[in-house]
Amino acid sequence: MTNNNRSTTGKNHFTDDTNWQITNAELMESGHMACPGCGASLSMRHVLKVLGPETIVVMPACCWAIIAGGQPTTALSVPLLHTPFAVAAAAASGVRQALTAQKKEHIQILTWAGDGGTFDIGLQGISGAAERHEDMIYICYDNEAYMNTGIQQSSATPHGAWTTTTPGGKDFKYGKKDILAIIKAHNPGYLASATIAYPDDFYAKIEKAKAARGFRFIHLLAACPSGWKIDSQNALEVTRLAVESGVFPLLEMNDEGAIEKTYKPENPISVKEYLATQGRFKKITAEETEIWQNEIS
User: Fold this and answer.
1) Alpha helices of 70-132 — where are they, by DSSP H?
2) Count of structural domains within the chain
3) In a domain, 50, yes or no
4) What is the pLDDT of residues 183-227, one digit of tens each?
5) Residues 6+ apart with CB under 8 A from 34
6) 219, exposed or middle or buried, with CB in 10 Å at 0-12, 13-18, 19+?
7) What is the H or E stretch that residue 139 is in?
8) pTM, 2 dp
9) Which structural domain range is residue 246 located in?
10) DSSP 118
């Protein structure tokens, strides 16, 4: 079990005395179909609080395509366009161009996709949109596997993690794809990693993405209790431990194009402590854990 009273202290670029420009309105309604403890649903709620009602969401096949509710219902109070798995970024490009033709450039386009639709199936379309500097915010909520279709391995699945297609755990020599490095190569308008478990950092990055122009990309870590084999009440705590251990650093591309940390734990925990919180890492060996620790250190 994890310690829900853990205090997360560290050096953060963004402080809690900032006057966040967010709406009190709820643009994500009750009655959605998310599982208890779903990090993706909580993240969407707060992303929309920053972006506001003049937002159009473009979404490929993913957990959120189910969370939003079956047609003709939706849990979102903003327009939502569902697309096939591979074409979210291309469809969002078309929506952007249509709005530009109507002189409605002020409306935000949010492409919202899981790791399968980003790291794997949708990567070609993302690369094209980024290369063209399409004016959109692309957010990947990363729960580190194809959770909607039964917890299959994706290229965002980390070292040694169990999935239904890798019963013994993902082959340790194949780690998680560095999606930020891939997007950085396209010279995006904004680039960062974040998690709702660190709300000051999270809000600041969503606001900066909103204010920027061009192709903007945010990589969000979003816990999946069923896929990670954790208790739903511990979802945020386990997500914090991913950051405190260095497994998921909070990063941002600065004005010079370099990637820098926006949060540095003062008392970082070990990778072993993070892995021990989740059943999906039950079969990872001590030697593999040490290798992972050395990669971070």
Assistant:
1) 88-101, 115, 123-131
2) 1
3) yes
4) 999 999 999 999 999 999 999 999 999 999 999 999 999 999 999
5) 40, 41, 63, 67
6) buried
7) strand 136-142
8) 0.94
9) 25-296
10) I
